[in-house]
Design goal:
Elements: H1 10-16, H2 21-26, H3 35-38, H4 42-49, H5 53-65
Length: about 70
């Protein structure tokens, strides 16, 4: 996974790199193991948790680029 978009599924990201979970925990998404949260997109998770989607995508992509 070279980069994520707002349509990337939470479960796909976590399957690729569990360390991405730290960014989701920062926005208050503490249900990372829940089957329904794994099927959400980044955009859906941000909407539920009141977070800017573009900002989160940028953070995750910066992390992935640094690997």
């Amino acid at each position: 996974m070279k980069e994520v978009t707002k349509d990337t599924l939470i479960g796909d990201m976590l399957d690729y790199d569990m360390e991405i979970g730290k960014f989701l925990l920062e926005i208050g998404m503490h249900c990372l193991g829940c089957p329904s949260s794994r099927g959400e997109t980044i955009e859906q998770a941000c909407m539920v948790h009141g977070t800017d989607t573009d900002e989160l995508v940028e953070k995750i992509n910066a992390y992935l680029a640094s690997k």
